[in-house]
Amino acid sequence: FSSFSDIEFDNDKVYLLNREGVTSFDLQERKWSNVINAALFNGKNAKALAVKNNIFFISTFNGVYKYDKISNLSEFYSYDFIKNINDVYIHNEFAFFGTRNGLISFRYKYR
Fold it and tell me: What is the pLDDT of residues 6-48, one digit of tens each?
């Protein structure tokens, strides 16, 4: 493992983002797992990671990928206002993107 871009914690697992994708370490079982292959985000240089209940947001320089591990579905969002995301945070049904132009909230699921 090398060149980590971001680190996250969710449900007793530590998630690491690097050029190979997302890797997790289960703190209970003391076991490493490959969670997401970098092919999901087309090998683009990933910058930030957010994880909440098997929902992953991975930012790249030209947009953000949302991946649902349970359904194995992914979406890519590429709008001018969400490019160059520096950090991502998930709270309830919202994802927050910290960009050089300010903070953006995105309702990614509906109750």
Answer: 999 999 999 999 888 999 999 999 999 999 999 988 877 889 9
Percent of the chain residues topping a pLDDT of 70: 96
84 phi and psi angles, rounded to 5 deg? 55, 50
Tokens of 57: 């947001």
SS (H, E, C) the chain: CCCCCEEEEECCEEEEEECCEEEEEECCCCEEEEEEEHHHHCCCCEEEEEEECCEEEEEECCEEEEEECCCCEEEEECCHHHCCEEEEEEECCEEEEEECCEEEEEECCCC
Bridge partner residues of 68 (DSSP): 55, 73
How far from chain centre, in Å, is Cα 48?
6
Phi and psi at residue 107, in whole multiples of 5°? -85, 105
State which amino acid sits at residue 21.
G
Candidate from 35-39, 78-82, 88-92, 98-102 with smallest mean pLDDT: 78-82
